[in-house]
Amino acid sequence: MKNNIRVERAIKNITQADLAELVNVSRQTINTIESNKYVPSTVLALKIAKVFGKPLEEVFMLEEED
Amino acid sequence: MKSRFLFPHKWRLIGYLCFAADLIFAIVLTVLHPEGYAATDLRQVPGPGMKPHHDICIGVTEMRWHNDITILLIIFGLLLVAFSKEKIEDEQISQLRLDSLQWAVYLNYGLFIICVLFIYGIHFIPVLIFNIITPLIFFIIRFRWKIYQLNRLLSREG
């Protein structure tokens, strides 16, 4: 699964730490999600999409091998 | 995701203190009983149906008490270190915890199987004794290592 959290963050002009605080996780977790090392739970993915005010599919998308 | 059955974050320090206290206690006992504490204990325990000598009996009771304290203290300490919450206990930490626990159980049984195959008789007793604490120790090392890696990744990327 890919995501464009980094882009969305840049648009909204917030840091990893800000986003982490908004969705109640650690900065490490946001960092590993952004670098595709960790796949978040549905709840966390929905929370992140809500912060950016976009539907889930615009923030997270499936890859070929998924 | 809510993590259940975890201790508050600050209790981890108590865990480390218990572990340190136990380590010091163990070193003191090794100095006092260089021939082996457990061995002394075993030798002095009267066989079944034998009436123990009064002095020995007192010694044995005292040693039993020491043994109980050391074992309980180290288990209590390690449990607190292993299962205290992280500062921010989120879903990734829960997953790491679970992964590390599985990893530790596999490693522990792997080593145990090797010991079963190659160690016989009285020499097997230390293996059993170490097995009281090794699953927790393996878990703690692996879990802390994974968290260290996460933090290092973060500081590298700024």
Number of helices, where a helix is a run of at least 4 consecutive DSSP H or I residues of chain B:
6
Strand order of the largest sheet of chain A: 1-2
Main beta-sheet annotation of chain B: none
Distance between the termini of chain B: 27 Å
User: What is the mean predicted local confidence, pLDDT of chain B?
Assistant: 85
SSE sequence of chain A, one letter per element:
EHHHHHE
| Total helical segments of chain A | 5
Account of the 3D structure:
- The complex is a heterodimer of chains A (66) and B (158).
- Chain A has a two-stranded antiparallel sheet with strand order 1-2.
- Chain A is globular and about 30 Å long.
- Chain A starts with a strand and ends in a 5-residue tail after the last strand.
- Chain A is built from five helices and two strands, in the order E-H-H-H-H-H-E.
- Chain A is mainly α and 66 residues long.
- Chain A is 58% helix and 6% strand.
- Chain B has 158 residues and is mainly alpha-helical.
- Helix content of chain B is 75%, strand content 0%.
- Chain B has helices spanning 11-32, 37-44, 54-82, 91-118, 124-130, 134-157.
- The interface between A and B is medium-sized, with 15 and 14 residues.
List the helices and strands and how they pair.
The complex is a heterodimer of chains A (66) and B (158).
Chain A: E1 2-3, H1 5-12, H2 16-22, H3 27-34, H4 42-52, H5 56-59, E2 60-61
Helix pairs in contact in A: 2-3
Chain B: H1 11-32, H2 37-44, H3 54-82, H4 91-118, H5 124-130, H6 134-157
